[in-house]
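Hello,

Our lab assistant flagged a job as stuck in the queue for most of the afternoon. It eventually completed. Since we weren't sure the result was trustworthy after the delay, we are filing this so someone can double-check. Below is the sequence as submitted and the structure that was eventually returned. Let us know if re-running is recommended.
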Amino acid sequence: MTLLPTASRPRPGHPARGTGSPPHDTVRDVRSPGQRGQRRAGWVLASPYLVHVLVFTAIPMVVAVVLSLTDYGFLGGTHWVGLANYTEALGDPTFRKATLNTVLYTIVAVPVTMAIALGVAVALNQRVRFQRVFRAAFYLPQVTATVAIALVWKWIYDPNIGLANVLLSFLGLGEVHWLTDPEWALPAVMLLGVWQGLGAKMIIYLAALQQVPRELLEAARVDGAGRWQTFRHVTWPMLRPATFFVLVTSVVGAFQVFDQVYVLTPTGGPLHSTDVLTFDIYMNAFDGLRFGYASAESVLLLLMIGVVTLFSLRLRKADET
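-- returned structure --
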């Protein structure tokens, strides 16, 4: 007697052989009710931040792009002008001067601040007396209002009673008109930016230094490496992720510098020597009431920051490979 093969019964929850993909209900039920509840809770907890980004970032960006294509000026009618604002901005000497000042500020202030912050972090990573006091003192300017700091520095730069010229005269040097001399106005703003931005970068470097394995440092010392060799071949490679983060955030922040420029030189400095992009956008928007033109400048600033960020990411990826 010949036994004919019989089809095996599919087990509950499993598809029968030869029927293709499992039913939709089976795929949908892969996650347990607890996992689905955690996912919903995550969206609920993230919703305030998402709403904040939507209302105060995404929508204003879209509105700025739309306004940049009009001649909106708050008073009077609004007309569609297309790319006329962008053409005017690219041909405007004041905009080009502001762009140059912003680039100069970034090129000088960012590397100098990063170098000093790294040196301070290395020093404060050692066992020294009053270590916590020094750390707090270096970080204090970061949490102080920029306007208050700028007002203090404006007094320091005062040509008659300012502390800067008093120090120069004590050293036998001539006085400097820090905020009224076109050659010194932008460096004066840079000096303030370096001093105020030192704390945040120092904290990031300090946290990265504390993550360097002690075993590697001890092995380098056993092999006869000096302090500089240990830092160069052991510590510095471990700091590359922190350095990249500090670099990108510092460049983005430098392109948006405004408060100290506005307080120290309310008119943009002599001969527009401290006129940066954000200050020029502010003056065109709220002093000249040219919101369409100012929106076009804002879009161009956003594109510059995006290009710099993408370039930094490419460098980071090339360094990793």
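-- support follow-up --
The delay was a queue issue, not a problem with the job. The result is valid. DSSP finds 14 helices and no strands in the chain. Residues 84-320 form a domain with the MetI-like fold fold (CATH 1.10.3720.10).
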